[in-house]
Design goal:
This protein has helices at residues 44-52, 73-77, 95-104, 110-123, 139-150, 169-184, 196-202, 220-227, 240-246, 269-276, 290-298, and strands at residues 6-15, 18-28, 33-37, 59-64, 67-69, 80-83, 157-161, 188-192, 205-210, 213-218, 231-236, 253-257, 260-265, 282-287. The protein has 304 residues and is an alpha/beta fold. It folds into two domains: 6-219, 3-Layer(aba) Sandwich (Rossmann fold); 229-287, Alpha-Beta Plaits, CATH 3.30.70. It has a six-stranded mixed beta sheet, sandwiched between helices. Helix 8 packs across helix 11. The longest helix has 16 residues, at 169-184. It is globular, with a radius of gyration of 22 Å. It starts with 5 loop residues before the first strand and ends in a 6-residue tail after the last helix. 35% of the residues are buried.
């Protein structure tokens, strides 16, 4: 079997006396898309920085593409691409110049980078934009250029911190298509995202993190089957309180969020029959998904 593209054992990191990463262990096989999910403040970004050798752990060990980190982090990062959470493109350069200058950080000759630029821009859906200034690009174009820039050194492993935040559905779907192409080429992707649909579509495996710890790990289908009932009925309307008090015996778990009740059950038929007699209530019957798992394990309260 191939060695993991990323192996982390017992990672710990504290800031100001508060432990933000508490014994995290990860193993990501090559050629997979691995998702790291969690609420704000769960420790995801710090974990990525530890794995990249950008900060030093208080305890634990890391191997990135078989190279020990942080001891030889610079060597490991030569084979890694990074898509940061916020675009940091240089507004003084054109689209092509952003790729060329970035490639020089890896010691790649300008002539070689210039040869790669057309393919990278085609991949990012930016063909014909080589001479455009950054300020003239839409948010989706900037995000796709940031992805192209992360590939300028032809990395074996790409870290992506919320790569589609702020994008419209069209741009998001294009990036999903491009990320699937990367895994088909054998590249390893490590992804953080707040879009559960994105994680469910793209990730071969994922871990959910909260309060600095991994609370569960598996394939999306495994986690849904393990943690939540298969059927969900979302109910809302002015008579909701009275209805909830009458149907507690029909579903093993009911969660209230604002004016909506989420009814989780092995079968939806008894709940739907009861709702037929309640014309003042509206409802949606759907299959359980990864967002249900996420909310069950991390709660529905806001995180700042």
């Amino acid at each position: 079997m191939s060695a993991p593209a990323l192996r982390a054992e017992g990672l710990r990191k504290s800031y100001g006396g508060k432990e933000v990463v508490s014994g995290v262990s990860l193993s990501v096989p090559p050629g997979q898309c691995f998702g790291l999910l969690g609420p704000n403040g769960a420790g995801k970004t710090t974990t990525l920085k530890l794995c990249l050798g950008l900060v030093e752990p208080d305890a634990g060990s890391i191997e990135l593409l078989g190279v020990p980190v942080p001891a030889r982090a610079r060597e490991a990062r030569r084979r890694v691409g990074v898509v940061p959470q916020f675009d940091n493109l240089d507004p003084d350069f054109t689209v092509a110049e952003n790729l060329i200058v970035y490639g020089r950080y890896f010691g790649i000759r300008s002539r070689e980078i210039e040869r790669r630029v057309p393919d990278l821009l085609e991949f990012a859906g930016l063909a014909g934009r080589s001479d455009a200034r950054i300020g003239t690009l839409s948010g989706g174009m900037k995000r796709r250029l940031t992805l192209a820039r992360a590939l300028v050194n032809d990395p074996d492993l790409v870290f992506m911190d919320e790569p589609t935040t702020g994008l419209d559905p069209q741009a998001r779907h294009l990036i999903w298509e491009r990320l699937r192409q990367l895994t088909e080429q054998g590249k390893t992707l490590i992804l953080t995202t707040h879009f559960m649909e994105e994680a469910e579509r793209l990730c071969d495996r994922l871990a959910i993190m909260d309060h600095g710890r991994i609370v569960t790990e598996g394939t999306p289908a495994e986690l849904i089957a393990q943690h939540v009932e298969p059927h969900v009925v979302e109910v809302h309307g002015p008579m909701l309180d009275g209805w909830i008090s009458r149907v507690g015996n029909l579903c093993p778990r009911v969660e209230r969020a604002g004016d909506t009740a989420f009814c989780y059950a092995p079968s939806a038929e008894p709940i739907l029959r009861e709702l037929e007699a309640e014309p003042g209530l509206r409802y949606l019957h759907r299959a359980a998904n990864l967002e249900d798992v996420f909310l069950k394990l991390t709660g529905r309260d806001l995180r700042d």
